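Pair request: fold both.
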Amino acid sequence: MSLAPHLLELLAPARTVDIGLEALKHGADAIYIGGPGFGARASAGNSLQDIARLTAQTRRYGARVFVTLNTILRDDELEPARQLIWQLYDAGADALIIQDMGLLELDLPPIQLHASTQTDIRTPEKARFLQDAGLSQIVLARELTLEQIAACRTATDPERCTIEHFVHGALCVAYSGQCYISHAHTGRSANRGDCSQACRLPYQVVDSQGRFVAHDKHVLSMKDNNQSDNLRALIDAGVRSFKIEGRYKDMGYVKNITAHYRQLLDEVLDERPELAASSSGTCTFTFTPDPNQNFNREFTDYFSNGRQIDIGAFDSPKNPGQPIGWVRQVGTQSFELQLDDDTQRLANGDGLCYLDSQKELVGAQANRVEDLGGGVWRVFPKDPIAPAAGRAPASGTSGGSRGASGAQLHDLRKGTIINRNRSMDWVRTLERPSAERRIGVWLTLAELADGSGLSLTMVDTDGNTGYASIAVEKQTANDAYSANETTATGLRKLGDSLYTALDVQLNWASPWFVPASQLKHLRREAVAALDAARAAAFVRLPRALPVEPPTPYPEDTLSYLANVFNHKARDFYARHGVKVIAAAYESQEEEGEVSLMITKHCVRFSLSLCPKQAKGVIGVKGTVKAEPLQLINGKEKLTLRFDCKPCEMHVVGKMKRSVMNEHRRSADAALAQGVPMQFYRTRPAP
């Protein structure tokens, strides 16, 4: 069984348990987090004790914890992974997010399994297969259009499988699981949680005749994903789990972006009463969520509404920020900044930046600021200001001097547009407590039938009930109205509990005088009873049973692109009808040139060199062809080849000899210590 089809799930990331707890407080219905090992973010692991601490809190709200165990595994890692999964289940984890199908061949606890983005789900056939194999939730490739998402939903059963989709955060330019550049160049495998992010580097783009098409452009760097305007369309397409990227992100980011999507989804729930949140509680915030305040490379909705030409962050992989004003005057140690909005303010430590004459982003962090009035501020930057032509250097410096960071603010002149990419006021706001999450309850105070005391019944918005009673000597109140008000006010004081009072009913023949201490005791006992009732009502997510006989895999031949890295994964695909199964790229079998990245992004299209763009253009039609291009970064060279039928780009290269040699040395060293590095290497007979 998957998430009920009428429930919507906001799925937030957590690098640490403390960040996960804040995600919960800011509206997450589920949290995904790394465990002690085998997660696709190598430096974002958490102990079993921390996982247990997080699950204990999420269960109080009916929220869930999904643990990432989504790397591909060597043969010698399968048993440690199996043991870890049992430990995670005992710690309360609700589901595992996995990539390696070899795990489905192991003796696992009855923990629900979800398909990682690394499984590269692009087609209805792949989505249906993973559902039939026993995965209860599948995250579709970020590159799919709304129509393609709807096709995957149509091919699957909403009662058996939940469609999950990324709605915010950094974009991997490759189809996830289909990038091997990092491993080929450095030995660090993206499929094993250690990507070197070659996609964020600057490249020279050269055509087949050696001509430069682009110079020092980050042509594989994407803007950040933002589906804020598409949530209703995604719901209509069948998405029920809305995933925020960011297991490396800080707490401020997770607070802000989780709160942003919580508010947006709550608006939808108000409009559509047939839908509901998948966990309990209503959030209140001390701030107005704003995605522009966090690190971003500007935003795109990627391919949701078809191919767009402006999806890339080609000028810089850094955060360009938001424009706030322009330079009025430049001095030797400071510059004057005229704000576009004179109600805005600057603060010491604000992150400022601008584009230089080469369109490169230059940081100009404000070390100190002075308010000159009228929206004008004097900014003393952290780094020295480079002297303009004809202007003497600042006292105590030479024209070639550099600040402690080794940088100077060059090309800073009158009229330069200044952006702010970090507001210290915003940072400080999110460093403080910034949200509360409470579950609504109805309270009824009544006389006991024998007249010996009072009872308090609390019913929460999920229908759970807490009941308590207390013997109280009946004393008729002198002022009936005042007694009713005082008692109702006392019952509403639910303190640090999960609950907030929606309504209080007083069912007594005439008002009693109830001492505050007795009212507090009654309230505390009823809260404890309701907590117990909620805990008893919590049901762990069930593990889905695979279809029998096994559903055939959509293909009968798998290349290295299937990421089969152990014998159990090979057995899984063979059991599902695959005849030829190649080893994963990390097995070092592919020594020649291969596709090191497959991506829906097309450099030709983004540079207006696509043959399809040229169709119908007089004088251009037929002259533009999808010939290969070359990417050059220092000594690294990659070839771009274009597959125009599916409209995809392949980045082609081969593994460095040094990477292959290091792998062999590591394997030999492990073998000498009696711990062989075992890989699936040989292909089965057809």
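--- second member of the pair ---
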Amino acid sequence: MHRVSLKILKEIDRNPSRISELAEKLGKSQSWISTVVSKLEEKNLVEKNRKIKLAKTYEATLMRELLDSYNLEKILVGKKEGILKALLSGAKKPGDLESEGFAKSTVYNALNDLKSAGVLEDTRGGYRISDETLERFLEARKRSEEETPYKANGEKIIIIIDAGGEDGEPTAFSAFSRYGVDYYPNKTYLYRDGKDLEIEDVLIHAVLCAKNKKQMAMCGIFFLRHRNTLDIQKLWKKSEKWNCEKYLANLLAFIDQREVKNPDLFLPVEEFNSLASNYGVHLQEKHSKERLLTGLERIGDNLKNKVDAYLLGGVNLILRGLKDTTKDIDVVLENQKGFRDLVQALNGDNYEEKHEIEQSYKRLEPSAILEKQGSPRWDIFVEVVANCLHLSEEMKSRSEKHTEKNNLRLYLLSPTDIFLFKSVTDREGDLEDAALLARQEEIDWDILLDEIKRQDRLTGRYPSFATLDIIDILKERHNIDPPIRERLASYCLENALILHLEEEPKTIRGLREALDFPEHQIYNKLKKLEKEGRIEVDRAGKLNTYRAKPL
């Protein structure tokens, strides 16, 4: 271990300190101390908040005990740590150590020093470590430096100190620089035995392997740098494969500035933004009710004609008292004329249209996204959201007129309809909002089911499937079980069967392979559809073949 590293550990054991304070005490530059501290953080020995302190990890706990017992600069500096690690496998004589590559003079000098320090004893079999805490610390250090495999479906990620001669494609933090994020870890992360890596693989592997706040922060920076190209659905699927969904959920919550279930994994927001600024990214600012109302009034002043805007996102929840802040204003307009008028008013307030947007927003197919530094972003939809939900007359009749800001008339869509809109997105924040609405018990589930069926008829895009997925996720992650779940699942199964049978005739076995439903449910639904005359059955073969009747 480096002498400066031990001095830093000894100093912060007594008194947690800032980088500048450590640099002054040790007579080193701040950049040098910052580099050493980052390496200690990667080795699970320190953690950074406003000050540097010993981490709450197994390795750091052992280090604290050793600092209380020894002058570690006489034990762990230079070749002495290597010789001690060589003794972990059992007692060795000087000649044994020389055969492992240590110089003769180094061996004898180190053994004498370590014996004088009281951490070695000379036995008949040779020298052995006599301090149990030191032995456990060295074993922990050695484990962290050796290959650490993660496995999933025949694929493997290994973490090693030296990649010389190792097969594998760089992934996780070792691949960040390939994607324009200059970060060079002190270990090598390699991927083996799988398919070609995608950018989503690199991020998920990094989330899986992250061991401290700095590494998790780099995952956040990587996401922010590439949020316009990352596919959220792929990220979730890959996180499930590697069993790190909770870590991904935490990362997305931190980026979205929602409640994080494991805050100890993340830097304070101010410190994260300071680090992220070096990479040209930052967390999106959130806005309070007062600031939002002021901005809405200003836009209303700029409008030349009356515009009805239906609020469906965070602003709606803020005005209902269910949230405190939001990053953007989501509105649905009735027609193109209102859209042109609103965009013109926003342009007059120095808003500019954003053309590069992240994948989850592209799927929503907004008519326009407009941004201004220090102000909430506007996501504007005209009549349709995500090409699958229409602003129906029934939705408008259920909405409440909230206020009129000069020429801007604001309507709050009902909680039932907000839930439906949020069910067709891939945004983790919208899932949290859906859970919030469900817990508040403000959703009329029967009306929701009726509206889902209406939207299916209007668009032919079947948003019912997305809503069923969200309801299943709410049950799994939040223990929320809406009363329409079984009815919606039955309705979705019926639609899924018709869609598959319109493509080509299938047997029950073929339908079971295509659909994630039990065979008996498929059979019962097919009997119903046959009775209704919507499908026909060919019973001439060994297995019945089902086909959809032409409309």
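Observation on the second member. The chain is about 50% helix and 15% strand.
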